[in-house]
Amino acid sequence: MTSAQTPHMPSAKDQWATGLTMFGAVMLMLAGLLGIFRGIMAIAKDDVFLSTPDYVFHFDLTGWGWIHLVLGVIAVAISFGLFRAAMWSRVGGIAIAGLIIIVNFLSLPYYPLWSIVLIAFSGFIIWALCVVRPETVSSMFD
């Protein structure tokens, strides 16, 4: 068998790159879905959240709900691009995960434990999408 006839065996580096991209895609989809649910919860039923009257970044809970809902929908849409290993989705995934961190930090007093969980999720998403070189991932999906 010549080198032209041998099938391409992915290296360990290629497998790690694909795995990390899929990890980022799944985690972004989960963070997006959780953001959607949190947004719906804040819009529909405000009494689930803590009330903090003297918070500097005070919005109506319905306003926070819409912010979380919109970011969640965008995150889910971007995660579908990550499953196709599109470069725009890696950049968008990093950006939306950063925005999710900021929004969850700002809404920390309303639902503290859940905000910390989503901040950690988003940190893992950013790490997974930044650590892999684009050419390694795109070669695995061709």
TrEMBL record:
InterPro entries: DUF7144
Lineage: superkingdom: Bacteria
Residues covered by the DUF7144 domain: 21-133
Membrane listed as a keyword: yes
Pfam families: DUF7144
Keyword Transmembrane helix in annotation: yes
Keywords, sorted A to Z: Membrane, Transmembrane, Transmembrane helix
Coiled coil stretches, renumbered: none
Residue stretches spanning the membrane: 20-44, 64-83, 90-107, 113-132
Protein name per the record: DUF7144 domain-containing protein
Source organism of the structure: Streptomyces echinatus
Lineage: Bacteria, Bacillati, Actinomycetota, Actinomycetes, Kitasatosporales
